[in-house]
Amino acid sequence: MGYSGKHCSIGPVTIKASLFYSQVPSSVGEFLELPAYEYAPILVNTMILRLEVR
Q: What are the residues facing 29 on neighbouring strands?
């Protein structure tokens, strides 16, 4: 099964995905008036995928 230009533009594609963790959801942290650092997102991992669509 292949793809053609009908489904996707031809050329390079870069996909970046980042995984974040937070001990408390920001809406809960704001509601409880916690310090911002208590619910700030923490970067756990990042992945970059580069491919060429032909």
A: none
How far is residue 22's CA from residue 1's CA, in Å, rounded to a whole number? 40
Q: What is the DSSP string of 6-39?
A: TTS-SEEEEEEEEEEE-SS-HHHHHHTT--HHHH
Q: What is the pLDDT of residues 5-42, one digit of tens each?
A: 567 788 999 999 999 999 999 999 999 999 999 999 99
The C-alpha atoms of residue 46 and residue 14 are separated, in whole angstroms, by 13
Torsion of the alpha carbons at 21, 27, 33 and 39, rounded to the nearest 10: 10
Distance between CA atoms of residues 16 and 21, nearest Å = 17
